Amino acid sequence: MQQRRSQTFPAKLDRITEMLQFIANWCSDAGSTESACNSLKLIVDEIASNVCNYGTDKEHAGPITISVSKNDKTIVLEIADQGIPFNPLEQVVPNTTAPLEERPIGGLGIFLVQQVSESVSYRREGNENRLTMILKDAV
Known about the structure:
The protein is an alpha+beta fold. Helix content is 32%, strand content 29%. The protein has three helices and five strands.
C-alpha cells in the first residue's frame, strides 16, 4: 500500500511550522514510526530553512513543494523549490571531529540530512531544485 501526499507552501520561514505539521499529519495517516517521522521533520526543517534563508532572491522566490510517499517500509521525501540553483551535495563535508572552537558556525544541515537518510540525491529540473531523500521506516 502506498501513501503519497504533496503540498506547496510559500518559501517563508514563518510557514515552516505548517510544513512540519503537514509531515506530522502524513506520518500519522501513513502509520510511520516516530523515529522516521522525527527524521522527516528534521529534514524538512533544515532544507526549508536553508531555502528560505539562502535560496531566494527577487528572481528566485517561488514556493516549496514537499512530496512524501511510502511503499512497504521505504519512505521517499522530495523537496522542490524554485530558488537559486544549488546542489547541497557538492558542499564540503564538515569536519565533525575537530574541536568545537575550531569549527565554523553552521554547515551541518546537509550532513545531518545525509546521516538520517538511506540516500540523498539532487537534480535541477527546469527552474526547480529537487532534493530527494530515501528513508527506512523500520519498526
